[in-house]
Each structure stands twice: as C-alpha cells, then as structure tokens.
C-alpha cells in the first residue's frame, strides 16, 4: 500500500505517535501535532494514484501506514491547505462512485476488500465516461487506470460545469 499514501520516514519520526482504541476494538495510530491528535501525520502528502487505489484508500485506509479509511478522515487531520483541498476532491469522486453504485444496486455499506474491487470495476466505465471531455483527443495507448484520481476529478468537474452551463442556457432560450 506504499503507493497509496504520502509522508516520509522523517516526517513520521518527527511526529509523535500513539494508539487509541476504536469502538470495534481495533487500535488505530493517532498523531499528535499542533497540540491535538490527528488521524494522519503532520505534513502528510497525497501521492499520485489512480481512482481504483483512491477508492480502496477511501474504504479501507492503509494498514501498512496505520491510516484509517479516508471516509473517516476530516480536514483537521491535514496540516496543509493543499492536502485539505485534495480531501474535498476525493470526497467529490467517492460520492459519484457511491451514487452510481447505488443506482446499479451494487453498493455495500461496509464492503470487504473483494467487494470494494467489484464495486469499483462495475463503476469504472461510468467514471471513464465522466472523465472524458468532449472535443479532447487522447492517445490511444493512454489507459484510464494510469490516470491520477485528481485528473479524473478535475475533468468531472469541468464536465459538470459545462452541463450546468448548457442547462442554464437552454432554460434562458425557452423563456
């Protein structure tokens, strides 16, 4: 899971770490910085990963790094504004995946690792369609799995903005 998350060994050493017990009995590491406990170490940096890995990180976190599922992480767990913005982007993408999975009747509230893979694979075609921008040609050898989730979000937001602009314009035309 090393490819999922950021932070260097030095950052981890500089950050005081302790463990707290959750309701489920699992021991989740917490990091103490700026006078408070956080789910992530100070200076956490997002790494370039695909949408599939981002979905896995959202649902299950990183056992290797001791990070909780990112669906449980809050803005206060990040020390930089840029990292907080990426969390907002991740929430946007995960909401779209969940909505699509629910519409197909395949959403599972607390999925196993295998279920996470199945849910994602059944939503990937939808994401690919949302990712592609009209009029933008892509190389035939570019694989969707190699595109970072941040790029997918950027294009999805552009597409949504274009759709909203078209809807707004058609409402004005019909008046």
TrEMBL record:
Residues 17-26 have a biased composition (Polar residues). Residues 1-26, 156-175 are annotated as: Disordered. This is Uncharacterized protein. It comes from Hanusia phi.
């Amino acid at each position: 899971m090393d490819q999922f998350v950021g932070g260097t060994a030095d950052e981890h050493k500089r950050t005081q770490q302790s463990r707290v017990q959750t309701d489920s009995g699992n021991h989740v590491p917490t990091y103490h910085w700026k006078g408070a406990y956080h789910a992530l170490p100070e200076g956490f940096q997002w790494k370039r990963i695909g949408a599939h890995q981002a979905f896995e990180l959202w649902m299950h976190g990183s056992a290797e790094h001791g990070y909780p599922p990112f669906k449980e992480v809050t803005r206060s767990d990040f020390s930089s504004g840029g990292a907080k913005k990426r969390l907002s982007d991740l929430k946007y993408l995960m909401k779209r995946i969940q909505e699509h999975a629910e519409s197909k009747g395949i959403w599972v509230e607390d999925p196993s690792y295998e279920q996470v893979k199945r849910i994602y694979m059944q939503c990937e075609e939808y994401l690919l369609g949302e990712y592609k921008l009209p009029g933008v040609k892509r190389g035939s050898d570019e694989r969707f799995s190699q595109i970072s989730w941040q790029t997918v979000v950027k294009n999805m937001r552009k597409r949504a903005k274009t759709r909203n602009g078209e809807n707004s314009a058609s409402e004005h035309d019909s008046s």
